[in-house]
Amino acid sequence: MTTRTEQTSIRPITLTGRSGIDRAAHHRLDEAWLAAAWSHPKTRVLVVSGGQALVEDLPDGRTELVLLPAFEAPISETHRYFLGTDEEGVRYFALQQDTLPGRMDQAARPAGLREVGALLSERDAALLAHAVALENWQRLHRFCSRCGERTVIAAAGHVRRCPACGAEHYPRTDPAVIMLVTDQEDRALLGRQMHWPEGRFSTLAGFVEPGESIEHAVVREVAEEAGVTVGSVEYVASQPWPFPSSLMLGFMARATSSEILVDGEEIHEARWFSRDELEAAFASGEVLPPSGISIAARLVELWYGKPLPPGVPR
Ligand SMILES: [Zn+2]
Asked: How far is the CA of 146 from the centre of ligand 1 (A)?
């Protein structure tokens, strides 16, 4: 496997850039430090609820997270996650709540990462992804997988401890591969999932299985979903995908066969497209481009050689 060390995509891939946030994990067990950080006037708090946070659309077209000083944040010590610090010494926390706080100014609106990930700055997108990933994990792992007892939050939101058997549980990340497959004629293989709207085509993707390398997962998934044999596999970039706990590993893959046989379960239809064919299909409306923050759109763009037409929001 070769690795692209530089981002060669036309547009940056959301959530892969440098956020400027130092997660400062060494502070997570230091209760005195955390308490002092929380009460510091420069500290900012991101309230999350059900995968959403408040964002504000600014007059200049930017969208940013609503980050509260700690004294304005709702009072809650149980679901407080330390996210890190930035170069100016600002400490960031997330606060998981049952509902988002109301805002007097009406300017803020609730939004999820899928919706605003590409609009936010790299810092804000990274803070939201971290907070949402922890929220999802905390919500789904309240009980000890070893003994069944209720677990308690520890390490500023990054560990759950079992008071009965002493087990420590860490946030899980599920690796998934997502790949743009091209053939000898440099055509791209795009598929349509069963539940997608008519005309939506995108890259193939799937989860890495236990005991499997990611390169093998690429080869296996393409064979299973489209019946196509893959030879070389080239890593492009990764993207956190906390819906609820995935890490997308993006690849370009070269096929050594071209006959398509879809599985008919996950993938309903798959086709080879030349660049001209795809451009014509976009123009006629026969094919809808992949949309949203997913790395899929960037992988297609990397091959296509120019920005894709705007997608229809999912
Ligand atoms: Zn236990």
From this structure: 5
pTM value?
0.91
- State in Å: Cα 143 to ligand 1 middle: 8
Q: Which amino acid is at 226?
A: A
188-193/174-182 β-pairing: antiparallel
pLDDT in tens, 153-162: 999 999 999 9
Question: What are the helix (H) ranges across 121-268?
Answer: 122-140, 214-226
Q: Domains, the chain, ranges and CATH?
A: 25-140 (3.90.79), 173-304 (3.90.79.10)
Cα(202)–Cα(294) distance, integer angstroms: 10
The CA-atom distances, in angstroms, between 265 and each of 106, 176, 181, 230 are: 45, 18, 19, 20
Residue 90 pLDDT: 97
Q: Report CA(79)–ligand 1 centroid distance (Å).
A: 20
Instruction: Find the 94 Cα to ligand 1 centroid distance in Å.
Output: 26
Q: Match 């850039």 to its residue by tokens.
A: 17
Residues near ligand 1 ion, CB 5 Å cutoff: 144, 146-147, 149, 162, 164-165, 167
pLDDT of residue 2: 42
What average pLDDT does this structure show over 230-259? Answer: 96
Using pLDDT thresholds of 50, 70 and 90, give the confidence band for residue 3.
very low
Distance 150 CA to ligand 1 centre (A): 8
